């Protein structure tokens, strides 16, 4: 592309490519952690930070790193976090370079700084008190978690550690929440799984076990709602199991729960009508309304869309069980306090 063409493509990218989606992809890569929504902005931070300093305004489609004092649009984000030039960033975002191939600038540095020194059974009094404060008995958490000690920039830390699929650790304590050595989801299969249950965090999963005593399901523990990608939804639906969703009672939980159910309805419609169910998700990159674009790509008539959203599917929002609480773990703690 010549300079004039690059400028035209860049202008289109800045208008159409959602910055928020890009930062969630950095979370999935293990570079950043998602801290949640405060006011009108979503916050992200590096793993060694206690709180997120990178604010993303989805409506304005811009980001700002309060700690570094810099920010901008989606192209500026790719330049900053992938160490690319302006031209390389535009080329990448225009679709000629798949997102999955990027190597974040800071990732190697972080990997070199963090060293896991010890992994053992949980025995530290502070961690035991933290676990009990979450309504979980030490013998119930023992099959799933370890006490992890690590070093970062010469300082030593410890926390309750849960494994994730990337080979890293999901770390939780009264003063720390984050991942090391890679982020992503965790999977637990109990017995002969008869259903799939999706939990936002490990303590929601452990709370469900304590409340139900169930031993016959597959648990998908997101560790962050940002990990609930359309690919994960699609892969779960392909297993043809009943799916139960146990997400938080907040705006983010509402969005992801409703989104999953709509994906399930579209998937079922395609399956029943002989349409493709192995969707080309790369073609949706950069689209804010992925389902609307997917319907166009699948060449589904507009008159059928309302019919799709009225379909009944074998996927269930379980938040009504703990409707007066932030999440399933808070529900457990509330019950125990009565």
From TrEMBL:
SUPFAM superfamilies recorded: Zinc beta-ribbon (SSF57783)
A Pfam family that the UniProt record links to this protein: Toprim_2
GO MF annotation terms: DNA binding; DNA-directed RNA polymerase activity; zinc ion binding
Protein known as: Toprim domain-containing protein
A GO biological process held by the record: DNA replication
Domain Zinc finger CHC2-type: 43-94
InterPro entries according to UniProt: DNA_primase_Znf_CHC2, Znf_CHC2
